[in-house]
Amino acid sequence: MDEKHEQTGLIRLLGVEKVYRTGTVEFAALRHIDLTIHHGEMVSIVGPSGSGKSTILNVITGIDRVTAGQVSVDGNRIDLMSEEQLAAWRGRNLGIVFQFFQLLPTLTALENVVLPMEFARFSKGQERIDRGSRNLDLVGLGDKLNHLPGELSGGEQQRVAIARALACEPSILVGDEPTGNLDSESAGRMLDLFVSLNQSGMTVIFVTHDRQLANRASRTISIRDGRVESETSR
Amino acid sequence: MSVLARKSWRDVRRRSARSLFTAATIAVAVASLSLFGITGLLDRAMDQRVVEHRLHDVRLFVEDTSISTADLDELRAVAGVAAADARTTFSSRLRDGDRRTEVLLVGINDFEDQPVNRVERDSGSFPGPAEALSESQNARSGRYGGGEGDRIDLEDNSGGLHPVTVAGRGTTVEYSSYVADAAAVLYLRQEFVNAISGARGVNTIDFRVTDPDDAEAVLSGIRTWFATHRPDVTFTGLPEVREPGTWPGQDLVQNFTTLFYVGGLLALISAVALVSNTMTTMVAEQRRDVAIMKAIGGRRRQIVGSFLRTVWLLAAAGTLVGTLAGIPFSNLLAGAVGGQFGVDPEWGFSVPVLLLSVVVGMLAATLAAIPAVLRAARMSIRDGLASGLSATQGSWADHVLHGVRLPLTVQVGLRNITRRKGRTIGTSLQVALATGIALGFFGVGATVSNLTTRNWNAMSWDVELRQQANVGFDHQSLTVLEGLDGFGSADPLLFNAVEIDGVQYEAWGIPPGTAMFDPEIRSGRWFEPGDADMAVAVVGPALAKVEGLNPGDVVTVETASGPVDFTIVGVDGRILYGGLLIYVPLPAFQHILRSEDVNGYWLQSASQDENDIDRLAATAEDALGAAGIPATTKVHHVELEANLSAFRLLTAALAIMSVPIVALGLIGLVNMMTMNVLERTREIGVLRSIGASSSSIRRIFRTEALAIAFVGWLIAVPLGWFIGWGLIRIVSELFSFGDVKYTFDLWPVPLALAVTLALAWVVVIAPLRRATRLRPGDALRYE
To answer: Which of B60, B220, B295, B518 has its CA 20 to 30 A from that of B594?
Structure first.
């Protein structure tokens, strides 16, 4: 990849460090990370427990603040944004899928999907409902719009979470162990969905401990002890 | 220390915000129990005042007797006598402009040396010649509001006026309660009182004894002295022996302190509910820890014990702080209440109340926590280990709200209140209790105020004239009155004391068709024209209750002319003179008492201007006096004000009581919202991750708080009616109002809603500020 391409990456981490402090104990989760992810890539991040892979996702999404270094996403220095700016930016530009789904339990599937649109003032009225319904159709839950999360299986909940992540048509989809709570069949289907979204132009980044799933990405970054150990492109 | 014990201690430290809040909640609940301590403080203050004011133990009433210094010295030497003093008291009238007020003049030999019934100076200076000290309660009661420097006139028996300058204000235990019941009181030099009254000596001799339990024996010694050394002295009434531990006006103060026990009980209920809610919430949050302990082999008893240790740590901290905070709280309240009676209680505390605070704080927290801990211990490991955003089954509320078009943030807030049903119900009840009590107290205030004005408005006279001395009002008096400037109309009256079963009551002979009295007949009827010469009577409600009288009953009434059988034709509902009046048709009463004259008049003024009415009262008195018919007057608007001021005291006491109880309700709401925010910190992290702004998050939680406040208000309205009804029953019993018609005005209801919602809006500011400032990463990792 040429230098210009490197410099114009969608996501750039430059000299990023993240130290967690708990009382008198300090833990360096990321040590001098330099990383670039380009438009349209599908990237998996792997590593043993405590290696810092989830932390990388957190600094990319702005969920965590870096201790040092710079984080740029699509030309925006998110390390310099305020929390309010970050929340608004995330709503419009990122879709996040969590390991434990993190759906709001009192909202139906459709309402969970529509909620980010309300936050971002994306679309309005019936159009939001229609978009939400389409997203749920896309993930195969078109017949479960009015089900509460408690009435859905784990796989179905995770699919709702993906539909929610796609609500505001983000350019980046981020998953933190998105298949961690699913059986292997559901996990495989989940990754199929990620691949199809990537093929439609979305940049997809996901963290996983499953090498098999990781290999379905076009690029795998291995993290160990807070550092990039290796990168594999396919 | 075992690991489980260490866990209890660390749990408290690890969740420091939560622990602090839980302990603070318990502290507030415990502090509110200090309402029970007010009574003891007031009693102690009054006991101290009795000692400081050297209240008499024995009092003799004598007929204008000269008591020399040597006599007093010898009386002081009688066995058991600690001190003695003699004085003149004289019932006079005070003239302040056109206003004339009944006043008792109390003579003091030496203001600098008062061995019995000491007058404590509150302001100004002790009076010199032609000066007076105004009893401080005069102003509080509305009878006479004058102070230092004011000039007034005092009447003597022949209507002569004695100019007096008010030197200041002072008070005695002996006479301060007299003001509430009867008339204003002034303290003057003894010789000046004699000059006004025309007395040569004294008419009251007061004694303090060394042993109050021995007062009767000391009295016997005093009587023997008089029989031996002053057989010339005439006693005009039975001697008064004060029971140890009693003092004038004690009944009234005790009625108020009883009210404080009621308030304390309401505070106790609120406090227990608050502590229960708090502990249930706290334990429910730790169900994951419970599941983990079960998974690694913990037995139920061990798990419960571990949590109870945590509960006890928090309860101990909260109880200690609350018990200590309750001391200044009860002292401040006692000072506020005591101030209404002119009493300044010293700081102190009640050991029984402290013990109650400790017991309630520790026991309530423990008892509240046990069911929650047992529930958590019974939960399956799997359910206990479920993530923070555990999926729930839909409730009926979720499905109902799903169909309502509201912004999703509002939907989330409304549906969240059904997730923690126990907590929501507990908090709503707390808000309901606080708001209901406030509404109830409004109801009591409205009832009491309406009662007073209704009773006084039943009488449309402006001036009441009563005979003074032994000269009755004959036909000439009416001619004199009719000739007065400002005269409107007059109704004759005959007042007299009667007895029923040995108990004295006041009887009013009243023209059957009078337009100046509007009875409120509860049973039977008022007088008819045909009753004019009949021995029939209408009785007040308290009298009917005490004597068990109903229409149709015949009762033997002892009159000045002997016993007469009256047929009760009706029971009136007006509470005048405590509801203990007996009304008789005037012509019949005159016939019974064999009197053609009357001893009273009700006058209506041609003008309703208060100054004109005062002037009519003054000129009526002067004119009758000039005609050789001395009279005293009572002015309707002055008496109404004096009565209203007494009930203001009651409503002030209720307002003071309501403060801690309403505070408990608010604390409950703050507690619940803080726990909600803390508990859903991870959820807030998720919301922030998917783009929620601070304002969206605030809207979710504000919706919850407002919804709970609204539900609480809904419950509060009928609850408040019931609480007010109950309090009126208690107040009626304490103050002998009889059967009082309860008034529950509706205007405070929407006001209560507005205030409750406004407070709910405010109380979430602090917890939400914390929540919205959290970084999403920290929020997602929050445990």
So the answer is: B518
B83: β partners: B208
Chain A positions touching chain B (beta carbons under 8 Å): 58, 61-65, 83-84, 86-88, 90-92, 96, 98, 100-108, 111, 114-116, 118-120, 146, 148-152, 157, 164-165, 168
What pLDDT digit, counting tens, does each position of B351-392 carry? 898 998 999 889 888 887 888 777 777 777 666 665 444 445
Residue A1 banded pLDDT, cuts 50, 70, 90: very low
The whole domain housing A94 covers 41-54+83-233
State pLDDT tens for residues B474-493.
888 999 999 999 999 999 99
Summarize pLDDT for A3-61 with one digit per residue, the tens. 444 455 799 999 999 998 877 788 899 999 999 999 999 999 999 988 999 999 999 99
Query: Is residue A198 assigned to a domain?
Result: yes
Show residues of chain B in contact with A90, CB under 8 Å.
Answer: 688-691
Report yes or no on A24 lying in a domain: no
Query: Nearest-CA distance from B644 to chain A in Å?
Result: 55
CB spacing of B389 vs A102 below 8 angstroms: yes
**DSSP letters along B349-373, please?**
--HHHHHHHHHHHHHHHHHHHHHHH
| 3-class DSSP state of A52 | coil
Closest chain B residue to A170 measured between Cα atoms? B690
pTM of the model: 0.70
**Which residues on A lie below 8 Å from B693 (Cβ)?**
84, 87-88, 119
Q: Please determine, for residue B276, whether its predicted confidence score (pLDDT) is greater than 80.
A: no
**Angular region, A123: left φ>0, alpha ψ -120 to 50, beta rest:** left
Please indicate whether, in this complex, the C-beta atoms of B408 and A88 are within 8 angstroms of each other: no
Contact B775 A88 (CB under 8 A): no
Which ipTM did the prediction report? 0.78
Question: For the domain that residue A171 is a member of, what is the CATH number?
Answer: 3.40.50.300
Exposed, middle or buried, A140 (CB in 10 Å: 0-12/13-18/19+)? middle
Using CA atoms, how far apart are residues B483 and B498, in angstroms rounded to an integer?
Answer: 34
Residues A66-107: tens digit of each pLDDT: 999 999 999 999 999 988 888 888 888 999 998 888 888 878
- Inter-chain CB proximity A150 and B387 less than 8 Å: no
In a domain, A128, yes or no: yes
Q: What is the DSSP string of B298-338?
A: --HHHHHHHHHHHHHHHHHHHHHHHHHHHHHHHHHHHHHHH
